[in-house]
Amino acid sequence: MKDKHFLEDRSVELAEYLVSQKATVRSTAQKFGVSKSTVHKDITERLKKVNPQLYKQVAEILKINKEERHIRGGLATKKKYEETHEKEDSV
Prior knowledge:
The protein is mainly alpha-helical.
């Protein structure tokens, strides 16, 4: 089993990055080379016990991300559509 302090330290490090960059769980996971599940567990469950004040900041970012995710999804779909049609036009 991993050292408890390692997990606590990692949860704080992930949370500080997420808050400072206003990042998503996905981008945070990519930055640190861990799974989205790991990031989510660290910043919601572990962090709440280790640093409640930082947890409140993270919760606010997660709330904003959840409210905006349909917009990001639509933009990603639009980009994919445009890239697909660019390739077809150039052929």
